[in-house]
């Protein structure tokens, strides 16, 4: 016989359930099923295991909690409220999903203190959690001493069937098993329901066997509806396993307590309604009114405030001892936690002249990483199995992040682009000052787009090193030649898309990317060699667009170039100038930064009076028309490429000096 939970346990659990029911009824929108079913596991985890301080949600050594099944966010909001977080009051609960509330429809880090990860797209949260666990493991190996542990916390996750069905979770959890991330513990809400009904219409695999094959420790709690002791015992067991991440399958009834809607798809994403809510109150023996929480529940759960303050004070004492014994390491950690870059971090970024040999910007990128690495110890990242094509290795670094070498900072993500992006987000979410970067081919941004969007939405300073940026890729053909990718990434709010045109601009792009800790950056880099320009510089990149080559007085024609096409503009301008035309060349490595400049500056670069303009970029024309107006044109790629050597591809589609000159002359005809 399974012992019944203590009366206070039941009261706390039902408080979570009914706050979710009442909030979702009031908003007439939301997902009550998960909070009702997961209330026992959420309560057990937060009350008996989670190390956190409600009065200081950003305390560094707290455990991280990720609600991967973000649609069930009323579970998280109820837990934040009941354990004493000022960010979620009862009024905030009542304003669930309303304009300006701190209880939005899915958890958002930028709206609600105490929310660790922005979740909603299923599978992304558990994948972010892998990044959180990597960050903890790396920092623990880097800073902990045998007599002083200052980095020592767990990452806990609640995930559902949907998270396990999305492919991104398979990618991330496979890597987590390989890396033996023992402080990652996932609670899997096994309720057999998704929006389409019973999961057996599409999902019949043995999830535990899958995770066991990944290298995870697995357990099954068969009664997750009432058996708090079994849930607690499973978490204890998971914590004792230090060389594997843990998955605990906890079988629950979705919408537990609802007589007519529990265990149905109907309770997944719709309010219970007044009649069913009344029946649920009877079923749960809940005599309290809407949004009413028994005082003894507050009194008990808000002990987390005192407990958290005590845990943080203990850590502060340990940190003070650490500062005395290990002052150098303590200063570095403190700097990182404050988000300050080391003095002189950018002093070795290289600059170039036209006399320096032409190189691909992916090669310039590798040089930048190699020179930044020694000066920027918080730089951490890798590639999705394309290290020797992306050139994302940090020269001079020996070894990579593995289970036995977590102090290393190069990560082999394997052929897992989507997981890589989500894991990089998780490293950024960790809030420890780590600067994550990851590389793949630009065309495979399509695999990562969901997580890249979350990078931008959450304001995460992730750096995406995306090489082979045009039809210049050549022989691999149109499957590997991005044409629409750059314009589509420029369309994403809060994303910097940098397409440097030479070595100086590549160094400048890295400087901007490293400094931007509140938005992600795409570095779109060439495979083919690019000449270095006489008038480019590291500093000019910060304006987004600038005059690279100019003429006397007002130009008759402006050529706007990016990336490998910038030199085409320069060479065409020289030819046209010899023929008496007044031509200006504008380099536009980052449209977003250019748009942030003053109107006066933009007018100096692109004077309104000069109506003849040509944009040259081996990518789609989308977005460029605002710069060329009615009298300009583009030399762009509004079709797929072809399989041929890179130079042949560029010639076939008009990316030649001769074609730029011809298009320019046509504007004067």
UniProtKB/TrEMBL annotation:
Entries under PROSITE patterns matching the protein: TRANSKETOLASE_1, TRANSKETOLASE_2
UniProt similarity note: Belongs to the transketolase family.
SMART domains, per database record: Transket_pyr
Residues the entry annotates as binding substrate: 31, 268, 362, 389, 468, 476, 480, 527
Role summary: Catalyzes the transfer of a two-carbon ketol group from a ketose donor to an aldose acceptor, via a covalent intermediate with the cofactor thiamine pyrophosphate.
Pfam family, one: Transketolase_C_1
Positions contributing to Mg(2+) binding: 161, 191, 193
Required cofactor(s): Mg(2+); Co(2+); Ca(2+); Mn(2+)
Record site: Important for catalytic activity: 31, 268
A GO biological-process term: pentose-phosphate shunt
Domain of life: Eukaryota
Cellular component, GO annotation: cytosol
InterPro entries, sorted: THDP-binding (IPR029061), Transketo_C/PFOR_II (IPR009014), Transketolase-like_C_2 (IPR055152), Transketolase-like_Pyr-bd (IPR005475), Transketolase_bac-like (IPR005478), Transketolase_BS (IPR020826), Transketolase_CS (IPR049557), Transketolase_fam (IPR033247)
Catalytic residues (positions): 417
Signal peptide: none
Subunit structure: Homodimer.
Protein name: Transketolase
Catalytic activity: D-sedoheptulose 7-phosphate + D-glyceraldehyde 3-phosphate = aldehydo-D-ribose 5-phosphate + D-xylulose 5-phosphate
Domain Transketolase-like pyrimidine-binding: 359-533
């Amino acid at each position: 016989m399974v012992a019944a939970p203590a009366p206070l346990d039941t009261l706390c659990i039902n408080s979570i359930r009914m706050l979710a029911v009442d909030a979702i009824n009031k908003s007439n929108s939301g997902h009550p099923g998960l909070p009702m079913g997961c209330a026992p596991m959420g309560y057990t985890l937060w009350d008996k295991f989670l190390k956190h301080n409600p009065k200081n949600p950003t305390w560094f050594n707290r455990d991280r909690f990720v609600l991967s099944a973000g649609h069930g966010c009323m579970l998280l909001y109820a837990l934040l409220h009941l354990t004493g977080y000022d960010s979620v009051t009862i009024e905030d609960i009542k304003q669930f999903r309303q304009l300006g509330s701190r209880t939005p429809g899915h958890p958002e880090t930028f709206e609600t203190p105490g929310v660790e990860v922005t979740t909603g797209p299923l599978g992304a949260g558990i994948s972010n959690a892998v990044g959180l666990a990597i960050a903890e493991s790396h920092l623990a190996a880097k800073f902990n001493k045998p007599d002083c542990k200052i980095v020592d916390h767990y990452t806990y996750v609640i995930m559902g069937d949907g998270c396990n069905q999305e492919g991104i979770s398979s990618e991330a959890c496979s890597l987590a098993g390989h890396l033996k991330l023992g402080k990652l513990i996932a609670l899997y809400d096994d309720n057999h329901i998704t929006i389409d009904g019973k999961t057996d219409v599409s999902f019949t695999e043995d999830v535990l066997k899958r995770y066991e094959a990944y290298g995870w420790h697995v357990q099954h709690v068969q009664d997750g509806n009432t058996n708090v002791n079994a849930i607690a015992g499973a978490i204890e067991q998971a914590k004792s396993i230090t060389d594997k991440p843990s998955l605990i399958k906890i079988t629950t009834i979705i919408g537990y307590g609802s007589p007519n809607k529990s265990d149905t798809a109907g309770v997944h994403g719709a309010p219970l309604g007044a009649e069913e809510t009344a029946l649920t109150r009877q079923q749960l023996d809940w005599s309290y009114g809407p949004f009413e929480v028994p005082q003894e529940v507050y009194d008990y759960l808000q002990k987390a405030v005192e407990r958290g303050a005590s845990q943080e004070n203990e850590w502060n004492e340990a940190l003070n001892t650490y500062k005395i014994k290990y002052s150098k390491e303590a200063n570095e950690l403190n700097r990182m936690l404050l988000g300050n870059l080391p003095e002189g971090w950018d002093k070795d970024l290289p600059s170039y002249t036209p006399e320096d040999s032409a190189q691909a910007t992916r090669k310039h990128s590798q040089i930048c990483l190699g020179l930044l690495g020694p000066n920027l110890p918080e730089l951490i990242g890798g590639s999705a199995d394309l290290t020797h094509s992306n050139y994302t290795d940090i020269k001079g670094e020996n070894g990579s992040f593995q289970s036995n070498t977590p102090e290393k900072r190069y990560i082999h993500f394997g052929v897992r682009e989507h997981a890589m992006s989500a894991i990089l987000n998780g490293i950024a979410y960790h809030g420890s000052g780590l600067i994550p970067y990851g590389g793949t081919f630009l065309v495979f941004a399509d695999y990562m787009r969901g997580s890249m969007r979350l990078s931008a939405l959450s304001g995460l300073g992730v750096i995406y090193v995306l090489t082979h940026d045009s039809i210049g890729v050549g022989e691999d053909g149109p499957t590997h030649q991005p044409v629409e990718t750059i314009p589509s990434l420029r369309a994403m709010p809060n994303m910097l898309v940098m397409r440097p045109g030479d070595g100086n601009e590549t160094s400048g792009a890295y400087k901007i990317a490293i400094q931007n800790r509140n938005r992600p950056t795409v570095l779109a880099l060439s495979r083919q060699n690019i000449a270095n320009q006489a008038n480019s510089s590291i500093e000019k990149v910060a304006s987004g667009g600038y005059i690279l080559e100019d003429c006397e007085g007002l130009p008759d024609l402006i050529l706007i170039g990016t990336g490998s096409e910038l030199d085409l503009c320069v060479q065409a301008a020289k030819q046209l100038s010899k023929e008496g035309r007044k031509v200006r060349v504008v380099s536009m490595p980052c449209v977003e930064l250019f748009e942030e400049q003053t109107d006066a500056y933009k007018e100096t670069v692109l004077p309104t009076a000069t109506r003849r303009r040509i944009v040259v970029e081996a990518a789609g024309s989308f977005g460029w028309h605002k710069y060329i107006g009615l009298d300009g044109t583009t030399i762009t790629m509004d079709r797929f490429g072809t399989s041929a050597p890179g130079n042949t591809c560029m010639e076939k589609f008009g990316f030649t000096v001769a074609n730029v000159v011809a298009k320019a002359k046509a504007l004067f005809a």
